[in-house]
Amino acid sequence: MGRLAQRSGSNFQKVICMSAAVAGCPIVLTELPSCGARFVGKGRIIREPMPCDFVGAVRGTGQAIHFDAKRLGPDYATIPLNNAKMFEVHQIMHLVRLADAGAIAGLLIQSDRIGRYCWFSAAYFRPIANARLAWDDACLNDLGPTTGLIDFTRLVASQVPSSAGLDSPRTTPAFISGEK
Questions:
Q1: How far apart are CA 60 and CA 62, in angstroms?
Q2: CB 73 within 8 A of CB 48
Q3: CA–CA separation, 95 vs 37, rounded Å?
Q4: pLDDT-based confidence at 50, cuts 50/70/90?
Q5: Which H, E and C letters describe the chain, residue by residue?
Q6: Does the chain have fewer CB atoms within 10 Å around its N or its C terminus?
Q7: 134 half-sphere exposure, CB direction, 13 A CA radius
Q8: How many CB atoms lie within 10 A of CB 74?
Q9: Which residues are CB-contacts of 32 (< 8 A; sequence separation ≥ 6)?
Q10: pLDDT grade, residue 90 (50/70/90)?
Q11: 155 pLDDT exceeds 50?
């Protein structure tokens, strides 16, 4: 990843943290480090990627929230869900498992093309034609303009309880399994 991309991603992560710190924000968040480690004896460690960027809970209910933050520049006309470098399989599968268990899980996306923050819930990860998601897809929740803070109130309000029909069995999305 280039230095400019890292700086832009870092700024996005700062906006996420500032948005969660605002008085009245319905969630509490913790940013995870980009890499973890597993100890395998005699002082040896193995670096392992983290399952997502942020974890937290909804205030009052304690419902878990996990998400990966993705910043897409102005050249992204759609969300390329089949881009394995951007949407890593271990992260997608982690978010799907959590959504299946009742957590709020998904992708928080900053789109420089449309100037908006968007939420793509893991409850809607599914095979998508050409593995691309349009910015006006009904699965995306608008969380406000990128000129301000992220409206996490909209995120919490948009989540449908699992009793409303999202409990149906899910197959591995085509963009993960490699199907066409």
A1: 6
A2: no
A3: 20
A4: confident
A5: CCHHHHHHHHHHHHHHHHHHHCCCCCEEEEECCCEEEEECCCCCEEEEECCCCEEEEECCCCCEEEEEEEEECCCCCEEECCCCCCCCHHHHHHHHHHHHCCCEEEEEEEECCCCEEEEEEHHHCCCCHHHEEECCCCCEEEEEECCCCCCHHHHHHHCCCHHHCCCCCCCCCHHHHCCC
A6: C
A7: 4
A8: 10
A9: 50, 51, 52, 53, 54, 55
A10: confident
A11: yes
For residue 137 the two structure tokens come to: 């897809």
The alpha carbon of 141 is separated from its chain's Cα centroid by a whole number of angstroms, namely 12
Mean pLDDT (the chain, rounded): 80
Distance from C-alpha of 76 to C-alpha of 8, rounded to nearest angstrom: 15
Locus of tokens 């991309």: 5
Q: Are 65 and 105 in contact (CB under 8 A)?
A: yes
Torsional class of 7: left (φ above 0), alpha (ψ -120 to 50), beta (otherwise): alpha
Tokens matching residue 152: 């996490």
Polymer length in residues for the chain: 180
